Amino acid sequence: MGNLAEVKTHLNELVVGREKEIDFMLIALIQEGHVLLESVPGSGKTWMAKAFAHSFEGTFQRIQFTPDVLPSDVTGIRFFNPKSQEFELRPGAVLTNLLLADEINRATPRTQSSLLEAMEEKQATIDGETVQLPNPFIVIATQNPVESQQGTFPLPAAQLDRFLFRLQIGYPDFDEEMSIVRNFRQNVSHKKEIRAVASVEEVREWSESAKKVAVHEDIEKYIVALVQATRNHPIIELGLSSRAALALVNAAQGKAFIDGRSFVTPDDVKYIFEPVALHRILLSAEGMLIHDPADVLRKIVRTIASPVEAI
Questions:
Q1: pLDDT tens readout for residues 168-205
Q2: What is the three-class DSSP state of 64?
Q3: What is the DSSP letter of 235?
Q4: First to last CA, the chain
């Protein structure tokens, strides 16, 4: 597993109290998925994404989304060079290993949609020419749920579905916040501590190894049962799709891999179920008034029997 344990240790030193979120981000990187970080301002979303990116030797780009950012700023553009009298390609922010899309819900729907092809097919079409993106390529996007009605554009369901995980980051507890205050009160000194502890080639090797993690037939049936339970639930208007079922399998394999196992357990599925499923379901109008979507998913997990004897 190369430097995976070292990467986790390094990131947990840089980002206080976010062990679970770091696990999910590592799973996304290994399984070539994307992550949506959602939290109030000042909770460390951008810092966590930057610390994560710079812990690897791959390339990193950050784009700060605002309403005036254009699709060409994301994907790239061909421009006419008067010196050479030829059109030249100016790559956009997506031509990188890790793209931080900061405050993605501030971009217009047209600009948001420019990421769809890159996120799904790992390529970008620039003025009719298709350009393959580097391997690995993942997007870590952030958004602030508090300002959902103040000059922002909510992501459509089709784009939310492209994210492997949606992580809702809460406030740190007392001891964690004390550690933040003591360790990071000097504004920029802690940024020097970030160092690359794994290469892009190691990430590719992890990705290949994670794909070989065994998924028992009973685990597959368990995942399908969970997916179909969301479709048949009386207060869920939009249940999980087949793409979501595949995302659950991939995420569970990633969880098993970072834990050093060669097979998936029911606990792996339970661990990743909520962040994979939460942004892919839609409650009915009546359900939204009296139920929290996360609670609905937890009740589904408790209802569906897991295949304990099969492991």
A1: 887 778 887 887 777 766 655 455 578 888 999 999 99
A2: strand
A3: T
A4: 23
Say how far apart CA 255 and CA 234 lie, in whole Å. Answer: 30
Q: Which tokens in the block code for residue 160?
A: 């939310």
Beta bridge partners of 76: 91
**What CA–CA distance (Å, rounded) separates 13 from 17?**
9
* Tokens at 214, concatenated: 């065994």
Taking phi first (over 0 means left), then psi (-120 to 50 degrees means alpha), and beta for anything else, what does residue 17 get?
Answer: left
**CA pair distance 54, 121, nearest whole angstrom:** 24
Report the chain's C-alpha Rg in angstroms: 20
pLDDT on residue 41: 75
Cα 48 to Cα 18: distance, rounded to the nearest angstrom: 9
Q: Which two tokens stand for residue 55?
A: 């812990």
CB atoms within 10 A of CB 36: 24
Percent helix, strand, coil in the chain, to 5, is 50, 15, 35
What pTM was computed for the model? Answer: 0.89
Q: From CA 52, how far away is CA 17, in angstroms rounded?
A: 14
Look at the alpha carbons of 201, 203, 204, 208 in this order and tell me if their dihedral is positive or negative.
positive
